[in-house]
Design a protein that fits this description.
The chain is mainly alpha-helical and about 240 residues long. The protein has one domain: Rhomboid-like (Rhomboid-like fold). It contains nine helices and three strands.
């Protein structure tokens, strides 16, 4: 199932959501500019960029000291810089699609300032969840998926009955249908859980940080209760 649009209107312009999407796209375009097909030096430069700003678990745990360029961010800072790096067009495109569909309503419920803090905290919890699974890994973790997963968790709490226009594919057949958000997001988290469990027995599944998705989603479920704005209570004095 590929969600395309929900039916919950917003009361304000999603400034932070749009800003995050723009930032992710600009960083991805910069990544592309570093990598020139057939140019080995350019490919090494692009790889070095990912190793400097991606989150490498063994650097964070202190179990390794991979060579990086002078001026590279401290290991903990890469928890946040890694959220803006992506491994390909479908990676960044999928993350930004989900952020646009569900992020605008979550931002609307919190306000701009709270939303950016919520987004970064969700990404932090997501990164730490994946880090806990394999703190000795030397593979860079990159992508906004963990933070976006937090947005999905928050959306599920607030709008479980929203209708989401979804592309459903059955083999060679496809159809657009409106599906309740609880089904769309419920299906999504079940897929993450199943794939996460498979990483313990199937090495091929370890190329995706499934536990970052799960950790971010759980963070969103919890944090939304603290970040959503409370309705104002009006008093009449007499």
């Amino acid at each position: 199932m590929l969600p395309l649009k929900d039916d919950i209107p917003t009361r304000s312009f999603p400034l932070v959501t749009v800003g995050l999407i723009a930032a992710n796209i600009l960083v991805f375009l910069y990544q592309l500019s570093l990598s020139v097909p057939g140019d080995r030096e350019a490919l090494r430069t692009a790889q070095a960029f990912v190793y400097e700003f991606g989150l490498i678990p063994c650097r964070l745990s202190g179990r390794c000291a991979l060579p990086v360029e002078l001026g590279a961010p401290a290991p903990f800072a890469t928890v946040f810089t890694s959220m803006f790096l992506h491994g390909g067009l479908f990676h960044v495109g999928g993350n930004m699609l989900y952020l646009w569909i569900f992020g605008n309503n979550v931002e609307d419920s919190m306000g701009h300032g709270r939303f950016i803090v919520f987004y970064l905290l969700s990404g932090l919890v997501a990164s730490l969840a994946q880090f806990a699974i394999d703190p000795a890994s030397q593979i860079p973790m990159i992508g906004a998926s963990g933070a976006v997963s937090g947005v999905l968790g928050a959306y599920l709490v607030m709008y479980p009955h929203a209708r989401v226009l979804t592309l459903v594919v059955f083999g060679i057949f496809w159809q657009f249908i409106r599906v309740p958000a609880v089904i769309v997001l419920g299906f999504w988290i079940v897929v993450q859980l199943l794939n996460g469990l498979l990483t313990f027995t199937t090495p091929q599944q370890r190329g995706v940080a499934w536990f970052a998705h799960i950790g971010g989603f759980l963070a969103g479920l919890v944090l939304i209760r603290f970040f959503r704005r409370r309705p104002r209570i009006r008093y009449t004095f007499h």
